[in-house]
Amino acid sequence: MYAVLVAGGGLTGASLAVALADLGLKVAVVEAVPPEDPGQPSLDDRTSAIARTGVRILENLGVWTRLAETPSPIRTVEISERGCFGGARIDAASQGLDSLGSVVRNRVLGQALWDRLRESDCIDIFCPATVRSVEAESDRVRVGVKAGSGKPKKFSARLLAVAEGARSPLREKFGIQAEHKEYPQVALTGLAEVRKVVRPDTAWERFTADGPLAVLPAGGRRYGFVIVSNRGAEKLAEMSDAELLARLQQLMGYRAGEFVAVGPRAVYPLALDRAERVTAPRSVLVGAAANSVHPLVAQGFNLALRDVAALSETLATFGRPPADPGDPALLARYASWRRSDQANVVRFTDGLARLSRSAWLRPLRGLGLQAFDVLPQARPMLARFALGQGGRMSRLARGLPL
Question: pTM for the whole thing?
Fold first, then answer.
């Protein structure tokens, strides 16, 4: 019998499996798409901005030092409204830090996580495979796992951790309802290159009439970008390289430099998915399976890492290794810990999404950004949120072992 079976081996599921294995737990990971597959939805060429607390978590899991590419530090974040005065600026030095976080490609981070999975004697990997059935009993959960064309095999675990992503089929099997709100926006993500780097350690969040834009340092002369548009996926997908470069330059000006090349990109719709609860008998939802949020201000994976750290620490308080990771009292304690942080991130990102897509609210956005120049308490509050310090911090997030 496994202590924990993790459904989903993307960034969140792999991070959780590594953390649990470090507690001495016997873990199974079930993932549908191999990490090397170009179609792997989690481990693609998109960039992720990892907040300082998230970096500490990954450092403590022995993952950060394994990255094949050097992460790009973020020392300054600038938030502005195109065509308006005022703006918010957060810099690491004013917070007494060397950086606010770092940017890494999902594929690079995924490779480091999977290297840890494959090296651990405590982890069994089933890939490609999917969880097809779940039966919760008083002391275990029985899970049917199907690999390839063979018949499903039955496994038992004390706890099933669901890290499948926003539209989790397992969440529905538990009867957990989820709020689903489709935003009338789509996002275009990719990597662009500038002729000469102007500010290599600055990230930008910029509001425009058509939607927000995020530009993140990605090493060398590269920047990761996320263009959120109210105009539909077709217009974004059909843009040529030249049109996209012109669009980036128009929206950003020359703050990041002159954009000269752009690589492959992807377009995807945006939505909010929030589960009504994060636990079921012998089961727990982690990451986007519990809360999938708007990509503005890059909170999704950072929230998932805080879930991973909190769940691992909660299990650790019940023994090393805990005798029963699926104990109802343990799951209730985890849910209580995470409730406030999850709710705050959902409210904040959903509010920003509404604010970002309305041309009528443009004056309000401008006034809000100007407030950061005159209200002394506003900037530290936003900085704490950006650093992932909005709620109770786990030991891993504070740089401490479990």
Answer: 0.92
